[in-house]
Amino acid sequence: MSKTRVHLYISGRVQGVFFRARTRDEAKQRGLTGWVKNRYDERVEAVFEGDDEDIQSIINWCRTGPPHAVVTNVSVERETYCGEFSDFTVRV
To answer: Among all residues, which ones are annotated catalytic?
Structure first.
């Protein structure tokens, strides 16, 4: 499988609903690496690296998110895979 890197910006009611923690759990289940964090503009930002199929799966998950989240938009930027992460973390 080929490796992919994506940078996501998720808008809506995505802060204060455990979006980051659940994103970390979902990413780890898929074997993805990278990070997720809250932004000051009330969006959530995330970078994922991994197999193409798993990346598409996490993008699809982010379009809904955890219970109580209301996702209105997911902006996806495809980037060059570089394998810089060893785990998936929540950044503050």
So the answer is: 20, 38
